[in-house]
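FORM 7B: Structural annotation worksheet

SECTION A. Query
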Amino acid sequence: MNQSLLKVENLKVRFPIGRKSIFGQGKYLYAVDDVSFSVKKGETLGIVGESGSGKTTTALTVAQLEKCYSGRILFEGKDIVGSSKVELRNLREDIQFIFQDPYSSLNPRLRAEDIVAEPLISLKGLKKQDIGERIEELFQSVGLRSEQRRLFPHQFSGGQRQRLGIARAISTQPKLVICDEPVSALDVAVQAQILNLLTDLQEKFELTYLFISHDLGVIQHMCDSIAVMLDGKIVEYSDRINLFERPKNDYTKKLLSAVPKLDLE
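SECTION B. Predicted structure
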């Protein structure tokens, strides 16, 4: 049985709303409210829900890009909440992010090879002249050509930019990759290519994914287990087959009824 790489326990993330009264405590919005889940090594957990459900905030908090109010985030059995700067630096090698918009997440002033090299230099302390072969391997792994290494982001198509973002994310050989709506900004044909690429890379590099999406068709295709979020809470948490064939929560049933039946097996 696979061990859990990531385990989230009773996670709460809150943001202040309005001005704090001089006569009482301030008010808070709980974007994530008592959320718990786990992700096994080599598998994919999908978090699905409508905009504002808290799924992206959950992902950002797991990556320690957002602070939590309470709860535990266990990565390889160690609670990473409140990690020091040195610990966070080491954590960045093991937990990487693929963002929704492949254009705004890439530095427009850097050439493609420098974008991919950036984590290797900043996190692993490698020198640019020593990582040429590694960059070439990464370009090949994501389906980009060697001659594209000197291009700037605006010279790539949307799908190619996302491939570039994926190459950057896997450059440090992470153990967990958080995919935040990684295909929602792409057209349908390109979506399928990127999803297949992510599946191939997971198998090749033994990656574990936390996959955020509002698209149940994508979630069904990619994920081993699924958490359905609504208003900051997980309202249903199940393996893929049971969730799609025997949903229990009314909100989950509503989501499933709103999309066409897909056979992606």
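SECTION C. Observations
Strands lie at 4-17, 27-40, 44-48, 70-75, 78-79, 95-98, 176-180, 208-213, 225-230, 233-239. DSSP finds nine helices and ten strands in the chain.

SECTION D. Sign-off
Analyst initials: ____
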